Amino acid sequence: MKASFFLKLWVLFSGLYLTKIMPVSPVYVAFLLCFIFLFLIYLIKDNKNIHKFSIIIFFSSVLLLIQFYLTSIPLTLNLILTFFSPLLIYGLFKNMTIGISFFNTYAFFYFSLFLADGVWRLFHPNLEIDQAKLDALGIGFHIYKFNSFMYIDSNFVGLQAVFVLSVFLWANNFYKQKLNKLILILAFISILLTISRAAYLGAFLALFLYYIQDSKIKQYFSILLMFLLLFVVSNMLSFMENDVSFESKFIILEKTAVYLNSVDIFSLFFGVGAGKAETVLGIGAHNLLVSLIVETGILGVILFFIYIFYFFLKITYGRVLLIAPFIIVSMSLSTLAMPYFFSLLALVSSILSKAKKEKCCDFLLIEK
């Protein structure tokens, strides 16, 4: 089999978490198969793409070895997938051609999955939660959020859906194609069914960033969109003044500040273990930065932002569209299981590097 097969296999499966309906999610199987294939390539032929990431590999390995000691194996595996997924892409990307049809297939596949998850949650509300108590707090809709067959709740689905939307928009902009209407409809409905206000805001931001690229007319039109965004945000903030879910975000930050002022040196640098933020904060992290600093420590934060800084430099076209919506939404939704995020950023940077090397983008429109 060719490297292109394994690369596409990994990209398509890099976000396929089916934790509630399968004993082992497809993402783990795909990672293992692709890792074994890449390892065999590495043994047969020296791979410079891997060698140049030696420092990152070293620090990632240190972090993950400590995580094995601090937390459970499944949660550590999620960190392995997240931090090593870009290396799979760079190792498997053999100057190949990736066309728009692949990105459209990727978006169609995931939005269909998100839609199925949303319909499932609507017809299978979590009735174990005290509905009257939730209604009193003004968050009665939460009964439709906790029966996701992908993650713990639909907030994580919303975070991933926003990123898939960003990738879909970026690809169609880069390849100069019109947006597929069916995929857009699937995206709209699936994100709506996440019942995640952060995801709604992230999707709006992704569309806004898409429309202001490459066109003066769109840039002028974007001014109207910006005013609309400000109007929506101001009304949302006013509406959420007494919202317990909204207020909890600030409580988490306060508890994190208190924790960091009293934490020991080891936990400060290496964290308390993936998934264990609630044990020291008394509340779930619900914030990517909080999860990183509490669960993986300063080492994890540094490693994460090294990746972000690297991709920001490498992705010279549409990097804000790809990165900003995800990061902004992740400040309200927390997960360290995000191999799809780094995998797609690595794929995009590889495509752009090839385009720069060839000094032309037209060849990218030809499928092989």
Task: Itemize the secondary structure elements and their pairings.
Blueprint: H1 3-13, H2 26-44, H3 48-51, H4 54-70, H5 73-92, H6 100-123, H7 131-137, H8 154-174, H9 181-192, H10 197-211, H11 216-239, H12 244-262, H13 265-270, H14 277-281, H15 288-314, H16 319-330, H17 339-358
Helix pairs in contact: 1-2, 2-5, 4-5, 4-15, 5-17, 6-8, 6-9, 8-10, 8-16, 10-11, 10-16, 15-16
The domain tally reads 1
The DSSP helix count reads: 17
**Multimer state:** single chain
One letter per element, helices H and strands E, the order comes to HHHHHHHHHHHHHHHHH
Tell me roughly what share of residues is in helical segments.
Answer: over 70%
What integer value in Å does the Rg equal? 21 Å
Sheet/helix structural class: mainly alpha
Beta strand count: 0
Give an overview of the whole structure.
This protein has helices at 3-13, 26-44, 48-51, 54-70, 73-92, 100-123, 131-137, 154-174, 181-192, 197-211, 216-239, 244-262, 265-270, 277-281, 288-314, 319-330, 339-358. Helix content is 71%, strand content 0%. With 368 residues, the protein is mostly helical. It has one domain. It has 17 helices and no strands.
Q: Outline of this structure?
A:
Helix content is 71%, strand content 0%. The protein has 368 residues and is an all-alpha fold.
